[in-house]
Amino acid sequence: MKFLLLGATGAVGRAVLEQALADPRITQVMAPTRRPLPPAPRLTNPVTDFAILPAESDVWACDAVISVLGTTQKIAGSREAFRRVDLDLVIATAAAARRAGARSLAVVSSVGASAASPSFYLRTKGEMEAGLRALGYPSLTIVRPSMIDARRDPPRGLEELGAMAFRLLRPLIPARYRAVTPARIATSLIAAAMEGRQGTRVIESEEIG
Ligand SMILES: NC(=O)c1ccc[n+]([C@@H]2O[C@H](COP(=O)([O-])OP(=O)(O)OC[C@H]3O[C@@H](n4cnc5c(N)ncnc54)[C@H](OP(=O)(O)O)[C@@H]3O)[C@@H](O)[C@H]2O)c1
Fold it and tell me: What is the rounded distance in angstroms from the CA atom of residue 59 to the CA atom of residue 77?
């Protein structure tokens, strides 16, 4: 089975890559990135701005796609720039893979994602989900984690504080809102992409891993 992994340099992406490369059922991992990955057997890593990769590029040809792309408003610099990644780039890359024959897509969204949300972030994620549903994948899995408990380089101050608070208060927090590790999210994404169950499935945060 050939996987296309989008966002392999990120916190969740690195976990997906590690688990996918250790899984003998996955014969190739195609992981286009902006920064090179350490070489590994069965990994193909074109270093490129994949937003502008042509539709006929070999990159898109795969059985299953895992998309863990994303940025923050702070890193992107504006709301518009954030939407260009978390909405437009996620949909455009998934669409290119679908056109190239991909049948299964597993994607990271967020707890509370809704196109009707008053929160700009959650609304963007909800719009992303709607855009992906419209692409016609035979199998679509949307994973909606709560806070991702990951070490960031460079550190994302408030996010790290939040993750610490989530760890300390874990027993008091309802299951849906407990922090989740990249490794557990990766396991859910890979299992869903491999299984390729027909239709659209939403995995809420408490069901991850
Ligand atoms: N942080 C949380 O607590 C949380 C909670 C729920 C959901 N989420 C969502 O979960 C997803 C994954 O999160 P994460 O923590 O793994 O994210 P991350 O560590 O920031 O990684 C994001 C990935 O997207 C890539 N990317 C960003 N902008 C790009 C662009 N313009 N072109 C190409 N690649 C680009 C990054 O590449 P570079 O390495 O080149 O930048 C990186 O590989 C995100 O969509 C996020 O919104 C996060």
Answer: 28
Number of domains in the chain: 1
Q: Is the CB of 129 under 6 A from ligand 1?
A: no
Mutation test of ligand 1: which of 148, 156, 176 has the most ligand atoms closer than 8 Å to its C-beta? 148
**Looking at residue 59, which CATH number applies to its domain?**
3.40.50.720
| Opening angle at CA 201, ends 143 and 114, nearest 5 | 60
Range of the domain at 90: 2-207
Ligand 1 atom at minimal distance to the Cα of residue 162: 3
pLDDT per residue as tens digits for the range 113-156: 999 999 999 999 999 999 999 999 999 999 999 999 988 777 77
Query: Is residue 139 a contact partner of residue 194, using CB atoms and an 8 Å limit?
Result: no
Which pTM does this prediction carry?
0.95
